[in-house]
Amino acid sequence: MELNVGQTASAEEIIALCKDKLGSVRAPKSVDFIAALPRSPVGKVLKKDLREQYWRAEHRKI
User: Fold this and answer.
1) CATH class of the domain at 11-55
2) Rounded CA separation 60/47 (Å)
3) Domains of the chain: which residue ranges?
4) Would the pTM of this model clear 0.85, i.e. be above it?
5) Would you tell me how many other CB atoms lie within 10 Å of the CB of residue 57?
């Protein structure tokens, strides 16, 4: 999710919104903020690049 220019949100606000929309079981337990989402030349978000930092040390990757 990307915020529009000039908007702000805290991790607690995002988690509360997810709990309201998805339920407490499916809502995230934590939120990481990054400056910008990695994008391909076409403009699509590169999810593989986002996942890489969490799966670097693991043998099995999703």
Assistant:
1) alpha beta
2) 17
3) 11-55
4) no
5) 5
Angle, alpha carbons 21-26-36 (nearest 5°):
80
Q: How many residues does the chain have?
A: 62
| Tens digit of pLDDT at every position of the chain (62 positions) | 788 889 999 999 999 999 999 999 999 999 999 888 999 999 999 999 998 888 887 777 66
**Helix locations, the chain, DSSP H:** 11-22, 47-55
Q: Is 45 helix (H, G, I), strand (E, B) or coil?
A: strand
Angle among Cα 31, 37, 40 to the nearest 5 degrees reads 145
Q: Would you state the structure tokens that stand for residue 14, as one six-digit string? A: 């995002």
